[in-house]
Each structure stands twice: as structure tokens, then as C-alpha cells.
Amino acid sequence: MVIDGRRVVSFCSNDYLGLANHPKLIDAFKCAADKYGVGSGAAHLITGHSRAHHALEEELAEFTGRQRALLFSTGYMANLGVVSTLLRRGDRVFEDRLNHASLLDAGLLSRAKIIRYRHRDTLDLERRLSKHESGEKLILTDGVFSMDGDIAPLAQSAKIAKAHDAWLMVDDAHGLGVIGNTGRGTLEHHGLNHRDVPILMGTLGKALGTFGAFVAGSDELIEALIQSARSYIYTTAPPPAIAEATRASLKLIKKESWRREHLDHLITYFRAKAKQVGLPLTDSSTAIQPLMIGDPKEAFHISTALLGKGFLVPAIRPPTVPVMTARLRITLSANHSEEQLDKLLETLSELITLSGITQQ
Fold first, then answer.
1. Is the pLDDT of residue 357 over 80?
2. I want to staple 85 with a disulfide (CB 3.0 to 4.6 A). Which of 35, 75, 228, 252 is the partner?
3. Has 206 been annotated as catalytic?
4. How far from 108 is each of 46, 91, 100, 131, 213, CA to CA, in Å?
5. If DSSP codes are grouped into helix, strand and coil, which group holds residue 154?
6. Helix and strand element counts for the chain (H, E)
């Protein structure tokens, strides 16, 4: 990236596969802009829904193994739309304590009773579900947790959901396109299908390199969202050019498996080198590699020092993360090289030593 005229290497983007600036996506966007114009001009249910949107929804449904998919302007709006459609006052929503803010806000907006279980603790989830057997029940979880990089125990969650007659919804914003042998996300990683996880939300602005989000599921689910999800009904549709660029991205994800393979290699390489120099990483096997600092002022100081040495790695501090768990959220991309990782690790090791933070 170029910041104030100075080139720096970014280690904070969610562009995991390096597709955001791919020539084929740019060409698809330009051609669609020539055909459709810039804005969609209206909400989906008025005149904003184009052939480009419809084709993308069909391709996303096929990619995720679902009957249908529905586009939303953002992942935040998708989560709000689903939960407020399915739940009412008197119902219950069960949320992992480290869920993304949009999932927590979705629960609040629905007016259902929010019950939070310990992070990735399926025994705690089952215990809490057992106390609330009446009414509609929805389990909400991230597929990959955005600040820690760990993967949710979805196989166990799916079994628990079935046993207690609850819906299970997975926000796979940081898994789709990256996790699994074919990039179909954390569900593929766990060997799950639409019967195990009936509600899937995915974003397009991370591994797919464009913008927007979608919900995939059954015909009944999608029809319910079209009729009742206020965050879908009462907002302008995304530009058709974005939809066409995303269609190009989907083709690349299916065809160019080397991007995931290279990213997986970089993750393994980075973790091995970090262990050699004693850097305190969390236990993450994904492209999100948090470096735990603890003190928020120290995290900010190290982040600022990194920028001075040509690396963009923001400090993540409370309230985004719990008190005294401030960290550097390092994210890797298929566009990175081993040489760039080596230079980052060397600089981090020097700064951590100078700071006096206890290393592993």
C-alpha cells in the first residue's frame, strides 16, 4: 500500500486470495459498468435486481450446495436480516462469546433472549440449550473468529442443534473461499452439508475480493427473507458491476487452487518461523495470525514502530477484544512472499525484545 506517498507492506487486509486487484475482476467490473451503469438505481424488489445479480445468486447457491442464495449489501445487513426474520420476543438465540459484533447486534434487534456460551465450548452450549427447550431457538456462530483466527467446532454444534430442535447459522465471512479443499469454507472443512447447517452467511469482500454478502439455504428460508428481512427490502441493491466481478472471482476460486495452497504454505511457514524466534502467536491455523501483546498502549506502540519500518499491522484493542488481550492482528494473503514474511518476523522479534514482552 501507499500511505502518505510511502510504500508499505500490508499485513492487515482480508483479501486472503489476492483477488481484489486481479485483472479479470477489474475487466468484468468495467464491462458490466459499460452495460449496466454504475449504481443499481433501486432496491432489489423495485428495479435494482438485474440479470447479473440473479446469475450470481444461482452460482453462489451451487458453490455452497444450497437450493438458493440471496444477496445483501453487507454481511452486517445479512446477519441482521436473517435473525430478525426468524426470531421474535420470547424466542432464544445462543451466541458464542466471541461472535462478531454483527451477530450480537442481530440478536439484540430481534428482541429474542440472548444467551451467550463460552468460546468454542459445545458442552456449555448444550447445557444452556437444555435449560430452554420451548420456543424457537437459533445457534449463531462465526465459522472463523475474526480476531483470534480459530475455527468453530461446527460438527459438534450441528449435532447439538439437531438434538435440541434448534436452527444453526454460521457466519463464514473469513472461511469462504479459503478454508476446505475446494474453498467452500468451514463447512467443507468439517464435512458438513445444508442439512447440518441450514443457514449459511458469506461475505464477498474478503477472499472473493469484491463487496457485499449473501445468505444461502432452502427455498423456504430465502422466500422468508425476501418477504420479511428489512435490511434486504429497504436498501438499494449493490451495483450490478460488483455482481459480475464476483462471478469472475468465483471462477478463479474454483480454477486456481494454487492460491489456497500457497496461502496454506505461508501460514505454516509463518508459524514455524515465529515459533523459532519465540513470538506469542495464538493457536490459529488460518490466515488470521494474532500476536498477543496484552497491554493496549504497548500494542499501539509496536504497531506504530512497525509502520515506521514499512509494515502495516494495526493494533486491535478493547473494546474490540477483551481487556488486556490487545494484539497485532496479522493477516496473510496469497499475494505475500516468504521474503516479506521473513522481514516482518525479523522486525517483530526485535520490537518484542525491546518491549520486554514475554515470548513463548
1. no
2. 228
3. yes
4. 29, 12, 13, 20, 21
5. helix
6. 13, 14
Q: Please give the average per-residue pLDDT across 217-241, as a whole number.
A: 98
**Domains held by the chain: number:** 2
213: helix, strand or coil = strand
Pair (33, 160) in one structural domain: yes
332 and 302 Cβ atoms separated by less than 8 Å: no
Known catalytic residue: 190?
A: no
**Is residue 193 located within the same domain as residue 99?**
yes
Out of 22, 44, 49, 174, which one is annotated catalytic? 174
Cell triple for 149: 483466527
| Side-chain half-sphere exposure of 44, counting CA atoms within 13 A | 21
Q: Are residues 195 and 334 in the same domain?
A: no
pTM of the model: 0.95
> Per-residue confidence at 352, pLDDT binned at 50, 70, 90?
confident
Residues 248 and 287 in one domain: no
| Mean pLDDT, the chain, whole residue set | 96
221: amino acid identity, one letter: L
Q: What is the pLDDT of residues 92-116, one digit of tens each?
A: 999 999 999 999 999 999 999 999 9
The CATH number of whichever domain residue 59 belongs to comes to 3.40.640.10
Task: Mark whether 65 and 192 lie in a shared domain.
Answer: yes
Residue 2 in domain: no
Task: Taking residues 249-266, report their average pLDDT.
Answer: 97
Task: Please return the burial class of 129, using the count of CB atoms within 10 Å of its CB with bins 0-12, 13-18 and 19+.
Answer: buried
Q: Are residues 137 and 271 in the same domain?
A: no
Domain with 276, as residue range(s), is 257-355
Q: Which is catalytic among the residues 189, 206, 262, 336?
A: 206
Task: Please report, in angstroms and rounded to a whole number, the separation of the first and last CA atoms in the chain.
Answer: 31
CA distances (Å), origin 2, targets 5, 6, 67? 6, 5, 43
Residue 356's pLDDT is 66
Do 46 and 128 belong to one domain? Answer: yes
pLDDT score of 133: 77
Q: With respect to residue 196, please indicate whether it lies within any of the assigned structural domains.
A: yes
| Per-residue confidence (pLDDT) for residue 132, from 0 to 100 | 87
Name the catalytic one among 146, 231, 284, 303. Answer: 146
pLDDT digits (tens, 9 = 90+) for 18-54: 999 999 999 999 999 999 999 999 999 999 999 999 9
> Is 174 designated active site?
yes
